[in-house]
Amino acid sequence: MTHPSRTGGQILVDALQVHGVDIAFGVPGESYLDVLDALHDSNIRFVINRQEGGAAFMSEAYGKLTGKPGICFVTRGPGATNASIGVHTAFQDSTPMILFIGQVGGDFMDREAFQEIDYRRMYGQMAKWVAQIDRAERIPEYLARAFQVATSGRPGPVVLALPEDMLVSRAEVADTRRYQPVQASPSAAQVDTLRAMLAASKKPLLLLGGGTWTEQACADVQRFAEANALPVACAFRFQDLLDNDHPHYVGDVGIGINPKLAARVKDADLIIAFGPRLGEMTTGGYSLLAAPVPRQTLVHIHPDPQELGSVYQAELMIAGGAPQAARMLAAMEPVDASAWRHTVEEAKAELRAWQEQPPIFKDGAAPLDLWQLVQELQSALPHDTIVTNGAGNYATWAHRFWRYGGMRTQLAPTSGAMGYGVPAGVAAKIVDPARSVVTFAGDGEFMMTGQELATAVQYGAGVIFIVFNNGMFGTIRMHQEREYPGRVSGTGLHNPDFAALARAYGGQGEVVEATADFAPALARAIAYTRAHSLPALIELRYDGNLITPNATLETIRANAQAAKKA
């Protein structure tokens, strides 16, 4: 049955409720006032952000955390361009997301009216589908398709433009059914082939990553790994697909990979890549696996048939979502694993050694031991704590030394987007307030979206923010010293007092400069967030020379200078 006459904005909000939307993120704009009015009487919680990049990041983090499309509303022109960073992240991270953009009215279209952009062209290469809804009666149809596209196959972002006059026009139209994500399943013959390849191998490795994962899928793939004594590695920033304390977890395959794990990837005779795209970061610049035909026998399982064979010609390519494929692998009859069973314990021992205190801190010369700080955090917080971060060398302390507790405890962008960590942490705490959330943020990273602390205070998101303040864009400085040693240009930062800034926003802030002071400051931060449901920030002021766990800037510069003289 059709509804009585409704405005386009009301039809849209009603459609969102049909599809189970309970929260949306955004920055208000006059281009979609009728949607804002309809949200007033809906069951959808509209979280107001301070900048559209933060709103888009929060929506993407919601999609990662829940598996449902993150919903974001922004206004035309500047709002849409600000939000593009979150759309790009959702695309590269295979995260379901729907971005709604207010658009100029149809009577002004194609005149370069105020803030007008053709979003089909703008977002064409960074979204699964981009469209504009020109007629109110077609809103339910477009939204049903948007949810379907965002969640089926390889998940990703959808962008819908909403002309202002369309939103205030009225129509009598029926609602649709709720969307149903569609994923392919492996065939029984493919599973039999995979089993035969596994039985014939001597050095297999299971590599997990990508989208569509659920708790049940993670449990099923764990059963498969245990039954077949497989060492399990996780792709870049998908470290939470297997509890890192599990005996079969042997590390992450990404930036700063454990050299011994890299050797195991290269020496494997069979790699079962379950879910990852096998992009640049996970393959070490396409060196761990040569493209297009790797030396290792490769089984590639991925939700999108178009991804299979696009870079790597695997010997066996299986189109399947993680839940569907994991269920079939868990039910597979195990093979004789006696040839490689010992490698699991060996690889686990190599991981433990890789996670030990780095030599740069063992002599006690550094006032602030960043490795010890991670140990203090791990001991003080629950195993299911959600850890978020953006891009930067500081993230190494989370990726290498934090032991993720399983799905979903890691929110980090494979797109390498700076500014992700703060809004992702706020979104995680809003979505799941009972869980502890910690955000690792560099000083440069924090300053890109740190204004979302105001959002955290407004919505009672008690996130603990750890800000690594070394007064520089550290990753770029590291590369700069390697390529142009001693010629520092464009990487120095003059920072505010981050602790005072946190207090100004309405949270708690402290500065830590010595290792012994961190544990008491952390205890106070935990107590404050739990007592007040407000954010707490700990600013770490430390020597920027300590750029990575493996090397100082001085060492990198000296090595580069020596190489240039040679």
Strand content: 15-25%
Domain count: 3
Record the strand order, biggest sheet. Answer: 3-2-4-5-7-6
| Unreliable runs | none
The chain-level structural class is alpha/beta
Span of the ends, CA to CA: 80 Å
User: What is the oligomer described by this structure?
Assistant: single chain
CATH architecture of the largest domain, by name, is 3-Layer(aba) Sandwich
CATH C-level name of the largest domain: Alpha Beta
How is this fold's topology laid out?
Blueprint: E1 6-7, H1 8-18, E2 23-26, H2 33-40, E3 45-48, H3 52-66, E4 70-74, H4 78-92, E5 97-103, H5 119-122, E6 129-132, H6 139-151, E7 157-163, H7 164-168, E8 170-171, H8 188-199, E9 204-208, H9 215-227, E10 232-235, E11 249-253, H10 259-267, E12 270-274, E13 297-302, E14 316-319, H11 322-330, H12 341-354, H13 359-362, H14 370-380, E15 386-389, H15 396-401, E16 410-411, H16 421-431, E17 437-442, H17 443-449, H18 453-458, E18 464-469, H19 474-483, H20 498-505, E19 508-512, H21 515-532, E20 536-541, H22 553-565
Parallel strand pairs: 2-3, 2-4, 4-5, 5-7, 6-7, 9-10, 9-12, 10-11, 12-13, 13-14, 15-16, 15-17, 17-18, 18-20, 19-20
Antiparallel strand pairs: 1-8
